[in-house]
Every structure is written in C-alpha cells, then in structure tokens.
Write a structure and sequence with these properties.
Elements (H helix, E strand, L loop, with lengths): L3 H17 L2 H18 L5 H32 L1
Length: 78
C-alpha cells in the first residue's frame, strides 16, 4: 500500500506534467468551441428557460382573463 508521502509525490509530479502541457489551452479552446456551437444551436440556459416559462405563464393567465371579460361584454350586448 502507498503511504501519504508517495501519494503526494505522485500528485506533485502529475501537477508538474499538466502545468507544462498544453492542456489548459486545449480546455479553453474546447470551452469556446462548445459555447459557439450552443449559440449557433440557439440553446438557452436553464435560468433563461425558467424566466421565459414564467413570462409565458403570466401571459396565458392575462389572456384567459381578457377572454373572460370579452365573453361577459358580449353576453351583456345580447
């Protein structure tokens, strides 16, 4: 079984390898690529979706209220 000192040594070596590699640049490029693809696909965040869902819900309620008022006005005219 490995002791803590060996694990720390291995961990530090891995950090050194990753630090000197182009991995951080690759991650940035992949992130930018994915964001660009999501934008082209017109995807929205969950937060934006939830906001628009709430707006639609309120709009639907107002429409139903207006339809009810219109029905009452039409019924009075007859």
């Amino acid at each position: 079984m490995l002791n803590n000192e060996k694990l720390n040594e291995i961990s530090n070596k891995i950090r050194e390898i990753v630090k000197d590699s182009p991995l951080p640049d690759i991650e940035k490029n992949i992130d930018a690529l994915l964001k660009g693809m999501f934008t082209k696909m017109e995807l929205v965040t969950r937060e934006e979706f939830d906001v628009q869902t709430e707006v639609l819900k309120r709009t639907r309620q107002k429409l139903e209220e207006l339809e009810k008022k219109l029905y009452e006005i039409e019924a009075r005219k007859k």
